[in-house]
Amino acid sequence: MKIEKNKNLAEIKDAINALLKRSFLMRDRNRDIEYYLTVQDNLVEINEYLDFMGYEAVIDRDLSVIALAYKGNEGIVPPKYKMTTNETKIYMALIKIFDRKVYEELIGTDVVKTNVRELKIELTNYDLNLIPNNKITTFQKALDSLERYNLIELIDKEIKDEHSEFQILPSIKLAMNREAFMQYFRTHEKTYFGTEEDKLEDETIPEKEEV
Fold first, then answer.
1. Which of 145, 152, 159, 210 has the fewest CB atoms within 10 Å around its CB?
2. 3-class state of residue 113 by DSSP
3. Lowest mean per-residue pLDDT among 126-130, 190-194, 205-209
């Protein structure tokens, strides 16, 4: 990777590690802004490095989001393939909620908020049940993972009841393109509707490689 001497190598390394860990960087989030700008300003050099791992950084300027994508497959990013069944069911419901609020209620993409109650209603609308149950602790575990992937931000860090709130981040729209998502859905359709046990729930989600 060729980087000019006047560029801060430490800042670039930190930005790469943040992208590998979070999968998404958002310009409008305080914790992401410095990393976002570093990747944006050094995109060519950073992608030269990521290329060795089969990744690339893709910028969506409309959403102000940088996504970690598999090389040559824009829109298909690593987190989707590490989601448990519960996380994927919730992800599906959050996409619906996000689209409804943005395109029907005309809420800005950077301020889409919801709560566990609204999420439960959306899951019920599609006959999606979490495993082993729909208790608050089950939601907490899944939502913690989605926050880790920078797809949501918990407003109430501890999910205590159905009124606990969280923000759906615009990165949710980049987590997978529609064609790949529907293919994934059809492959796991029985599991989505609770006819198979989810053996992944107790597994630790592996960390992506860091620099």
1. 210
2. strand
3. 190-194
State how many domains the chain has: 2
Distance CA 42, CA 92 (A): 33
Name which of 70, 71, 123, 101 is nearest 172 in CA terms.
Answer: 101
Checking if the pLDDT of 117 tops 50, the result is yes
What's the CA gap between 46 and 61, in Å, rounded? 18
Q: How far is the C-alpha of 166 from the C-alpha of 163, rounded, in Å?
A: 10
pLDDT at 187 over 60: no
**Rounded to whole angstroms, how far apart are CA atoms 211 and 199?**
31
Given a cut of 60, whether residue 118 has pLDDT beyond it is yes
Tens of pLDDT along 41-87?
999 999 998 888 888 898 988 889 998 887 765 544 555 456 788 88
Helix (H) or strand (E) holding 152: strand 152-154
Amino acid at 44: V
Residues 85 and 187 in one domain: yes
Q: Where are the alpha helices (DSSP H) in 54-198?
A: 85-99, 116-125, 136-148, 178-187, 189-192
- DSSP-H helix ranges across 23-167: 33-41, 43-51, 85-99, 116-125, 136-148
